[in-house]
């Protein structure tokens, strides 16, 4: 080793101070600090090259790491970590960062695909629910109108059946009155026949003078017999009418009871379709609106997620 290769003691102190200053600046974050001329010896040149080479490696790594991280944050995962000039752990770390960016790129692509799929699902769900809710609302309106009309018809049918029941009951009562009247007529006819018989006997006793009276008595007797026969026919017809009225009353009572049951069922259907008086007792239309609102809220949450 020649004397030119050895740093003089006074120059060594100056070189150490320069290196300490550069290292301190680098430690403080100033990676552009470099060791300048510290002597003409080979040791001074080697020290300068070693320190500046370390700083160059560190500066290049830090700059590339920052650029790669910034690009990844912006979604530009194709930006690779440029590892030219890096050695050892610097190159290994650079390759790991590049690999991490590639993994994040694939993950971001998967997330983007999942987000698009979620949005498509939200659109399909919203469209399907809107269609169903509209159909339910339309069906509910039609069913409500039909149910209300049927309920009105059932109520009118109950009223008509009750009116018919009242009419048949009145007919039965009238038949009873007719039967009572016919009984009176039969009694009168029986008395008339008895009187006619007595008159005929008295006319026969009177001889020629009572002959005309006897003819009248026979006519009265014949009329009484005809009246009695007619009364019996009327009684048979009245009995037939009363039996028919009794049967009709039984049928009408059964029909009225069934119609009342049907009216109650129809009213229940109408309430189910239109909703009751309580605001919480919603019908199909209100349920369709609630379903639409809840699904819209859910779809909005999916889209904003």
In total, the number of domains comes to 2
Question: What would CATH call the architecture of the largest domain?
Answer: Orthogonal Bundle
**Class based on secondary structure composition and strand pairing:** mainly alpha
Average pLDDT, all residues: 74
What is the oligomer described by this structure? single chain
Main beta sheet, described? none
**What is the beta-strand fraction?**
under 5%
The whole-angstrom Rg is: 60 Å
**Strand elements, count:** 0
Order of helices and strands: HHHHH
Give the proportion of residues in helices: over 70%
CATH class of the largest domain: Mainly Alpha
CATH superfamily of the largest domain: Methyl-accepting chemotaxis protein
Give the CA-based shape. Answer: rod-shaped
Distance linking N and C termini: 72 Å
So how many helices? Answer: 5
Say what the CATH topology of the largest domain is. Helix Hairpins
What are the low-pLDDT stretches, counting only 5+ consecutive residues below 50?
1-6
Organism: Actinoplanes lutulentus
InterPro entries: MCPsignal_dom (IPR004089)
Protein name: Methyl-accepting chemotaxis protein (MCP) signaling protein
Pfam families: MCPsignal
Could you please describe the fold and organization of this structure?
- This protein has helices at residues 9-27, 42-73, 88-206, 211-274, 284-304.
- It has two domains: 9-111, no CATH class; 129-304, Helix Hairpins (Orthogonal Bundle), CATH 1.10.287.
- It is mainly α.
- This is Methyl-accepting chemotaxis protein (MCP) signaling protein.
């Amino acid at each position: 080793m020649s004397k030119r290769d050895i740093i003089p003691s006074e120059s060594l102190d100056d070189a150490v101070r320069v290196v300490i200053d550069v290292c301190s600046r680098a430690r403080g974050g100033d990676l552009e600090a470099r060791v300048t001329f510290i002597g003409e010896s080979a040791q001074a040149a080697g020290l300068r090259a070693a320190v500046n080479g370390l700083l160059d490696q560190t500066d290049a790594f830090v700059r590339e790491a920052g650029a790669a991280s910034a690009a990844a944050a912006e979604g530009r995962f194709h930006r690779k970590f440029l590892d030219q000039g890096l050695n050892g752990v610097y190159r290994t770390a650079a390759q790991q960062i590049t690999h991490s960016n590639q993994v994040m790129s694939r993950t971001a692509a998967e997330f983007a695909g999942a987000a698009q799929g979620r949005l498509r699902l939200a659109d399909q769900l919203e469209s399907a629910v809107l269609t169903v809710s509209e159909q339910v609302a339309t069906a509910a309106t039609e069913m409500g109108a039909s149910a209300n009309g049927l309920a009105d018809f059932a109520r009118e049918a109950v009223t008509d059946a009750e009116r018919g029941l009242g009419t048949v009951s009145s007919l039965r009562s009238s038949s009873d009155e007719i039967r009572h009247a016919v009984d009176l007529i039969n009694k009168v006819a029986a008395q008339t026949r008895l009187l006619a018989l007595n008159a005929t006997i008295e006319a026969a006793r009177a001889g020629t003078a009572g002959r005309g009276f006897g003819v009248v008595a026979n006519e009265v007797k014949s009329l009484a017999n005809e009246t009695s026969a007619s009364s019996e026919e009327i009684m048979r017809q009245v009995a037939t009418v009363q039996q028919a009225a009794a049967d009709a009353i039984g049928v009408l009572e059964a029909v009225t009871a069934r119609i009342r049951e049907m009216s109650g069922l129809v009213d229940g259907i109408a309430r189910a379709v239109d909703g009751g008086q309580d605001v919480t007792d919603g019908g199909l239309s209100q349920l369709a609106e609630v379903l639409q609102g809840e699904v819209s809220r859910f779809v909005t949450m999916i889209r904003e997620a």
